[in-house]
Amino acid sequence: MTISSVRTGIVLLIIAGLASAAGTLILQRPMTGPEKMQRAYSPAMLHWLDTLGLTDVFHAWWFAALLALLGVNIVLASIERFPNVWHYFARPYRRPEAHFLTGLPVQREIPVDDVRTGMDAAERAFRRTGFKPQRIGDGPEASLYVEKHRFARLAAYVVHASLLLIFAGGITDAVWGYRGFVALGMHDETNQIELSSGMRKVLPFTIRCQGAGQENYPDGTPRRWWSKLVVLENGREVKQKEIAVNDPLVFQGVRFFQASYGSTGQVNSLLLTATPRNGSGPAKEFELRPDETVPLDSETSVRLAAFVPDFVLNGNQIESRSDQPNNPAIELTVDSKQAGTSTVWLFPRFPEFSHPEKSPYAFHLRDLQTGYFTGLQVAHEPGQWLVWAGVLLMGVGLAMAFYFVHLRFWVVPVSDGRGRLVLWVGASASKNREELEKRFGRLVEEIEAGLKTDCAACGIGAVAVPERV
Amino acid sequence: MDRTLNHSEGLSHARGNAVVALVSLAVVFLLTNALLTVAKGGSLFTEQNLLYVALVFFGASAAMYLAYAVTGVERYIRAASPAMMAGLMATTLAVGHRWYVAGHPPFSNIYEMLLCFVWTLAALTVWVEWRYRLRLVGTVTMPLAVIGVVLIQLLPSEVHPLVPALQSTWLQIHVTLAMLAYAGCAISFALALMFLIKDGVGTDTFLIWTSALGAAIYGGFMTRLDASGGLRVAAWDPAGAHEIFVAERTPLMVVLPGLGGIFLVVMLAILVPLVLNIAGQRSQNSGLRSWGTRSFFLALLLQVVALLAFLVRAGAGRYPSPQAEGLFSTSLAASPFIVAGLAGSVTASLLCLLLVWRREGLESMLPRAEYLDGLTYKTIGIAFPLLTLMIAAGAYWANRTWGSYWSWDPKETWALITWLIYAGYLHMRITRGWRGRRAAYFAILGFAVVLFTFFGVTYLLPGLHAYA
């Protein structure tokens, strides 16, 4: 079992498979937060998993080493076996020798009257079945050689080369590529992105969001997200594009993808009406922003104390289920010189929720504007073209491996054991022996039929030579 | 001598006619019954109706295949193929209907993918039967198709518009290739099983592996065992026909009292024939083996009980939840994978018992072992390039959508593991000349991983592929 043997390759494949499986069964950092990891595993267990690199399998040094070993195995195995295959190209075996004639498993002997009629009949039979025979040598020494799909012998090398290309692309991206995320509010700009490792990266240019939005299906589920992005270099606008899911902006090899769109969970402004409780005067409509105090009359003012976009009570703890304003809750602080300070909760989904007696006004929400952000996935993958080239090459290689067979036929006039003149016909294929035998049978029939029409006198059937394996 | 032979042949023919007539009658009865219901209200060509027709025909076909496997009466199999064709036609119409209604090819959720899987499975079976004159494949694939159609009926079927990430032709290419590849793997699995039967692998080995499969399935259920002996399943909102979520990706669970305990008992009962058969095989003790077979039968009965108990409990009633106050209803539709696991385990055990009873008859019906071996290799030779292209198309799509062609999410990783296993199979076969049993075991392992990738990953290891 050397580093270049198939067995080593298989063992490496199995280990890679097991390691990958472990990477899906064990919770992985940094996708899983540290708290969740601590909840899932005991401290001792977590320590061992971390030490063995099992909590981030796909970025562990030993996993990379495993893939590298697999690459080395493929290269060495290919180098070791290549000379054998190269023979089919450098020195095609056109003229078989005596030991080959006896040893070939698929062969027949067809009696003929003279070499020329026999060879002509064989040649015609080949042409009728779609092959191009070559005549090797002249006169009585002449023989026929037919070959098809010689390139199929290279299939395994093509597949392995394609794997190496994919590896090369993956390594290129692992070393020089990066992936990150950036969330931009309307008209925000930044030149920093948060990498998936948690680090920040500064880009050599600035990206600005000019606008973003969501289009919905009639049932309210999102159909399309879009963002208008502008690239700025040294303060100058150099590129602009409206991106959507599956249609990114590319600048200097860095791609910006529309990944998400949603509410920031922060309120921008509220439109409220305040109705005096004691019936003195009309209802007032006013706009309220965070960190802003709005006077309602000479004695009373109101400000926003808290905003919960998706209100839920967990025990007696107020929490937000999400950042989407699904069930907003608004906490107002009302300062009144007479009645003192009171807290008013507004639940637009539940308007019947009662106000405290203390507040001199009753409030009603007319409109709610929350902030929106567009979530952009940022990726730089200089190696991806190697990967796609590898994928295409692998398609070619697999097609060669499974759907093309290197076929060879030989026809040699010889005298058989009893001194009769016969055409020795033999065939070999790189795979699929059964199919070869069928084709060979048809070819022999074709030659015999050709001989019969050629010379009605030679009505002797073919003699099958028992197979020697 | 001649006369007795003729006589017995005549008898089996007469019996064959009777069974075919009975099954045909059942088909006609079920279809007429359904037609009457349809006539009372609503349209004829709905997806539900088409799938019902497919179910009836696949069921009839599975019954005929099994009857042929048991008795060897030629007439059964001649009835099985047309039934399978009729089922395939109905499935084709259902797929077409779905495509028309949704306005996009039906690959966007697990319901639609399962529909396509069943279609591909039936189509491939018809093709293998026609091309290679290999008629017993349906014995394995038709029960699979029946489970598939039942599962389809349970899954939420409303046409959802596509979320932005799924609006890509590449996704459709990816899923089409996946279904073709997986159906190819299923066929190679059936062929490998047949090879092992023909090659004389002991019936007790089949019993051991079937028990192990059953124990693994019930072991999976044990992750849902509640401290009170109940079974945690997702709650179901009958009005909206969907699960209830308390937070993002956290569905509301309800506890079905007692079921967890029942499942635990069934798992232990499955372990008994497993242990007995392994011990019997080790010690060559025929007494142990016969007890192994008996306990296997008992475990099968218990599994049927567990299946029925689950159907009754989950089908109706309101149950408490550990997450919230009050009682909530659930539905079979909320736990399609539990239903699939229960039904799959029962089916596997039934097929295995068929082998116990009819070993010699089955062997004589199968073609040469080398032929089956070669055919398994050929099927994998078709499935493997499809698997490769499927992974490539998925990577290309992910790259266009998320900017990353490979992110090691569980489904991706398991697809890669499947690919590695079949790559290993091909290397062993081509360069080391592995033939026969070792190759067949490899093919079976490959399909087991395919099943895990398709169901297990979706169910147990959620990731980016959460859409499916």
Assign an overall shape of chain A. Answer: elongated
Content of β-strand of chain A? 35-45%
Range of strand content of chain B: under 5%
What oligomerization state is this entry in?
heterodimer
Instruction: Give the biggest beta sheet of chain B.
Output: 2 strands, antiparallel
CATH superfamily of the domain at 92-149 and 405-464 in chain A: Sirohaem synthase, central domain
- Summed up, the helix count of chain B is 13
Topology-level CATH name of the domain at 92-149 and 405-464 in chain A: Double Stranded RNA Binding Domain
Question: Which structural category do the helix and sheet elements of chain B fall into?
Answer: mainly alpha
Largest interface: A-B, 49 and 45 residues
Work out the number of β strands of chain A: 21
Query: Over all CA atoms, what is the radius of gyration of chain B?
Result: 23 Å
CATH-derived architecture of the domain at 92-149 and 405-464 in chain A:
2-Layer Sandwich
Order of helix and strand elements from N to C terminus of chain B:
HHHHHHHEEEEEEHHEEHHHH
Give average pLDDT of chain A, whole number. 84
**Spans of chain B of 5+ residues with little confidence (pLDDT < 50)?**
1-14, 462-468
- Give the helix proportion of chain A (percent range): 25-40%
- Rg for CA atoms of chain A: 40 Å
Topology:
The complex is a heterodimer of chains A (469) and B (468).
Chain A: H1 6-25, H2 34-40, H3 43-51, H4 61-90, H5 98-103, E1 106-111, H6 115-128, E2 134-136, E3 143-148, H7 155-176, E4 178-185, E5 189-195, E6 200-216, E7 222-233, E8 236-244, E9 249-251, E10 254-276, E11 284-288, E12 293-295, E13 300-308, E14 311-314, E15 317-320, E16 329-336, E17 340-346, E18 361-380, H8 384-403, E19 407-415, E20 421-429, H9 433-454, E21 463-464
Antiparallel strand pairs in A: 1-20, 1-21, 2-3, 3-19, 4-5, 4-18, 5-6, 6-7, 7-8, 9-10, 10-11, 10-18, 12-13, 13-16, 14-15, 16-17, 19-20
Helix pairs in contact in A: 1-4, 4-7, 6-9, 7-8
Chain B: H1 2-40, H2 47-71, H3 74-102, H4 110-132, H5 137-154, H6 169-198, H7 203-221, E1 231-234, E2 236-237, E3 242-243, E4 245-247, E5 250-251, E6 253-256, H8 259-283, H9 286-315, E7 318-320, E8 327-329, H10 336-365, H11 369-402, H12 410-432, H13 436-460
Antiparallel strand pairs in B: 1-6, 2-3, 4-5, 7-8
